[in-house]
Write a structure and sequence with these properties.
Largest sheet: 7 strands, mixed
Order of helices and strands: EEEEHHEEHHHHHEHEEHHEEHHHHHEH
Shape: globular
Strand order of the largest sheet: 1-2-3-7-4-6-5
Number of strands: 12
Number of helices: 16
CATH class of the largest domain: Alpha Beta
Radius of gyration: 23 Å
Distance between the termini: 53 Å
Number of domains: 2
Structural class: alpha+beta
CATH architecture of the largest domain: 2-Layer Sandwich
Helix content: 40-55%
Strand content: 15-25%
Length: 429
């Protein structure tokens, strides 16, 4: 049955519970086919850590129809397609983008990878080495490593505190049976969403989806363990590494993706650290020249959220930088944002949101993830209209709720040693 019909897109649910979503854009010359499933590292046990990501890799190793990874790669590349897959804490996806005339072929390859991968035992053993090298790559990259340090600090020994890619120990122990079991329990019809966006024949693609995904057996969706947060004091974790630069993330527990305040938090992130006109960029890079990059972001998962400030600093400027960041956080709590600054940020969000929807893959992302993650789907004009209504007093209220000493977490990768002085700075937020 059709769930929704609105402005060129609709969602249909098959008898087995699988949903497929069409976003028709006849003016485009491209099409994107994407298969999403609501599972990721937060659905794993400790021994399974990295299994969702490893399965994503293994799905490209061959199917009955396409016996190895080279066959799959050649079929995509002869079409000139852009293709890949991704795994996060809460979802996994497989996608291909190509010419509109190739919609059926692109979907056929994506569906075959998702449904029919044979997960060859020999490839499982080989891929362990590949993923371990991926782990090594992140270990050698301080800008990546600091994210792992932060997650461990904020969430500890629970799925949200573990790295999506897993550990060398867990990856080394994976078996084909582990992969098959995880896929059976998590890649279920009700847990999956097929998205096709761009220029395509909706009738033909609908029939194709029914003939392929329609044969999946109905089964229960997996349950994600609840993430618990019980922070009472500011916290710091330092990963000591000899490097030319110190990387920091100052992060606060924030709003989940269902919160009515999440858009206010995102405006606050724009004000503080998104763009060259943002407060922290202007202060830390342009005025004080202590860093190359600095940014702020707000993100929300199903039952937890984060507001984070990231920067890469001169090794001897950590104390100075943290002192200045805290001053800015106290300022946005005590002083209302000017109408001029707020208006500029709102216009920026509106423009970038609209510009962002220019390609078939951006449409697939925008609508597909709203549906997969259980959100009420907003058209782009509805989305930006809500940002326009946010007031200076709402921003101040969210700042006061978010930026508290007991809610502060500081992750550092670099040669820094002075944890006591940093803790005093956090206590002063």
């Amino acid at each position: 049955m059709a769930k929704k019909l609105k402005k060129g897109w609709f969602i249909h649910t098959l008898p087995n519970g699988l949903r497929y979503m069409f976003i028709r854009r006849p003016e485009m010359t491209s099409v994107t086919a994407m298969v999403l499933v609501a599972t990721g590292s937060e659905y794993e046990t400790k021994d399974q850590n990295g299994l969702a990501h490893f399965l994503e890799h293994m799905c490209f190793k061959g199917t009955v129809k396409r016996p190895d990874s080279l066959v799959i790669a050649k079929e995509f590349e002869i079409l000139g397609a852009q293709y890949n897959a991704f795994t996060s804490s809460e979802y996994t996806g497989y996608y291909a983008k190509g010419q509109a005339d190739d919609a059926g072929l692109l979907l056929d390859i994506c569906s075959d990878i998702f449904l029919n991968s044979t997960l060859p035992e020999a490839e499982v053993q080989k891929e362990k080495g590949v993923v371990i090298e991926e782990i090594n790559m992140y270990e050698d990259d301080p800008q990546s490593k600091v994210n792992q340090v932060l997650d461990e600090l904020m969430f500890g020994d629970q799925p949200a505190g573990r790295d999506t890619v897993g550990t060398k120990e867990t990856v080394s122990n994976f078996t084909k049976e582990n992969l098959v079991d995880y896929r059976t329990r998590n890649y279920t019809p009700k847990n999956s969403l097929v998205v096709v966006a761009g220029n395509f024949d909706a009738n033909k693609i609908s029939k194709q989806i029914k003939n392929t995904f329609g044969v999946m057996k109905k089964s229960k969706s997996p349950q994600k363990p609840k993430t618990t947060v019980d922070q009472k004091y500011p916290a710091i974790k330092i990963f000591h590494k000899k490097s030319e630069q110190t990387h920091i993330i100052l992060s606060f527990h924030g709003y989940n993706r269902f919160s009515a305040k999440k858009k206010t938090a995102k405006i606050m992130a724009h004000i503080l650290g998104q763009g060259m006109a943002s407060r922290l960029f202007h202060l830390l890079r342009e005025k004080l020249a202590v860093c190359y990059y600095v940014s702020a972001s707000s993100s929300g998962a199903e039952d937890h959220g984060q507001f984070s400030i990231r920067a890469g600093l001169a090794n001897d400027k950590v104390i100075q930088t943290m002192t200045e960041i805290v001053k800015e956080l106290k300022k946005i709590k005590t002083e209302l944002v000017s109408h001029e600054e707020l208006d500029r940020v709102k216009k920026s969000i509106t423009a970038s949101s609209k510009i962002g929807l220019e390609t078939s893959d951006s449409y697939a992302d925008y609508y597909g993830f709203q549906e997969l993650l259980g959100l009420k789907i907003e058209e782009i004009h509805e989305n930006v209209a809500k940002y326009q209504k946010i007031t200076d007093k709402e921003i101040q209220k969210v700042a006061k709720e978010t930026f508290t000493s007991r809610n502060a977490n500081l992750a550092i990768v670099g040669p820094h040693e002075n944890q006591a002085e940093l803790l005093e700075i956090l206590k002063n937020i």
